[in-house]
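Notes to self after the Tuesday call (sharing in case useful).
The group wants a holo model before anyone commits to mutagenesis around the pocket. I volunteered. Ligand is magnesium ion. Logging inputs and output together so the record is complete.
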Amino acid sequence: MSQIYEQMALDGLVDLKMTKAAEVLDSITQQAAANEWSYSHFLGRLIESEQQFRLEKNITMAYKMAKFPYLKSIEDFDFKAQESVDRKVIDELATGRYVEEGRCIALIGPPGVGKTHLAIAIAKLTCDKGRRVYFTTAVDMVRKLNKAMHENRLHRALQMMTHPSVLVIDEVGYLELSKSEASLMFQVICKRYDFGSPIILTSNKPFSQWGDIFANDPVMASAALDRLLHKSTVINIKGDSYRLKEKRKAGGQIMNG
Ligand code: ADP
Ligand code: MG
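Result:
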């Protein structure tokens, strides 16, 4: 008789698309019998396994949608090797409060000092909290928008950059933008500012040189900076490239300087 109910439970879970619960039903039933669990204890364990599975699946999906080039975490960051980064500031950003406050984050510094690493680590924690994140480099973003503009679908393409709770724009200023590219980037910054949705950006250029980034248009550059810095946490990172330092420590040869 109990076999009939076991099969009904299994079919029901599959029918309700609770695939993880269906998968572990047999083993949890056996554990419950062996340990004389109460009915509610059994049910709690079964539901917990399904919830845990869905949570992990959602997070994996969120990372995929965020288009992170790779995953990095704050735990992987060696704060001792990078004294210009205050751990307390990063820990505060890790709470995700910046999203509710619409506070932008700017990581500024020379190549190899961990700007992208920290941007990904902070954005990944934001994903873990169930927020939508989208990662792009500045160049990829403006190329995508430019193409969309020529194909009469700019509106939809802009939504990709403006709808996520957090937009990471990596490598702002590595390449100078044309007038129309600069104006597309400006549109993204304005729209996100109006929505109160933060941007995390990394740049090798100090703000004083942002005129160059915005097609030598100092008015557009300062209007963009006004919005980005209105509410912001700016992290200036100094020092040598982490990789080169590690290489030197290991006694490796550095070619071409
Ligand atoms: P940037 O974006 O500033 O050019 P990256 O974030 O790409 O630099 O860092 C270059 C490499 O060095 C990455 O693999 C990154 O994980 C690593 N890295 C940089 N700084 C640190 C650090 N303080 N601790 C651990 N890894 C670091
Ligand atoms: Mg980088």
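Two things stood out.
The beta strands are 104-108, 133-137, 166-172, 199-203, 232-236.
The mean pLDDT is 93.
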